[in-house]
Write a structure and sequence with these properties.
Order of helices and strands: EHHHHHEHEHEHEEH
Number of helices: 9
Largest sheet: 6 strands, parallel
Mean pLDDT: 95
Distance between the termini: 13 Å
Number of strands: 6
Structural class: alpha/beta
Helix content: 40-55%
Low-confidence stretches: none
Oligomer: single chain
Shape: globular
Radius of gyration: 17 Å
Length: 229
């Protein structure tokens, strides 16, 4: 048994483990500009935080009347994102410390993300987190992305852990909704603190309203350990 009893921990990737949203924004901005949609702003991008790239391009086609197909837009955006992700992604220091604490305690861990499998692999390898996070699930591998629970349920299956024994770390409202739908506890740290009052975050077992600024690896580990007793 691990230090936290029967608990397994599932991480969202973008905005939770790593500060990759600026890369997602730039890849999106470049793709949209190439298809005749200039002026895509960071404020526009915040509306897409927490949903998969596949879902994002589907929305773009409807919202902007793009002629390019979903697969074409997805491939373009992923290619641009990967170019940025390989060299410009950093892990949040406290989140890296948390992963190392969990690894030292033999706690099973997984990553469940809306990014492509290639992007997940590139980011984890580039940040060194791949050494501890070997179980990964992309929204591309399941029928539905967040807010559907599919990625989290598949992560639990691959870990061999019942959903009720999984704890999810999430920065976005769709991810918090997905964790709740999966029957998992959620530690929520909103990437956009102004969205902390979103109803999806109200379902979280622990809400750190200030996001990463409020996250401390040791405190969250102790919270989990106290709850496992």
């Amino acid at each position: 048994m691990n230090d936290l009893g029967t608990i397994s921990v599932i991480f969202d990737l973008d905005g939770t483990l790593v500060d990759s949203e600026p890369n997602h924004y730039e890849a999106s901005r470049q793709t949209l500009a190439a298809h005749g949609v200039p002026g895509f702003t960071w404020a526009d991008h915040e509306g897409y935080v927490g949903i998969s790239t596949r879902e994002s391009v589907r929305i773009w086609r409807e919202r902007y009347g793009l002629r390019a197909s979903e697969p074409e837009l997805l491939a373009e955006t992923d290619r641009r994102y990967l170019d940025l992700a390989r060299t410009r992604t950093r892990a949040y220091p406290e989140m890296r410390a948390f992963v190392e604490l969990l690894a030292a305690g033999n706690v099973p861990m997984a990553v469940a993300s809306g990014s492509s499998p290639e992007a997940i692999e590139a980011v984890l390898a580039g940040t060194g987190l791949a050494a501890h996070l070997r179980t990964t699930v992309s929204a591309d591998e399941v029928p539905h992305g967040k807010p559907a629970p599919d990625v989290f349920l598949e992560a639990a299956r691959r870990l061999g852990t019942p959903p009720a024994d999984c704890v999810v770390l999430e920065d976005a409202a769709p991810g918090a909704a997905a964790a709740h739908a999966a029957g998992m506890r959620c530690i929520a740290l909103p990437y956009v603190p102004a969205q902390a009052d979103a109803p999806e975050f109200a379902t979280a077992s622990l809400l750190l309203r200030g996001g990463q600024a409020d996250f401390r690896a040791g405190r969250v580990y102790d919270w989990l350990r106290d709850g496992a007793r």
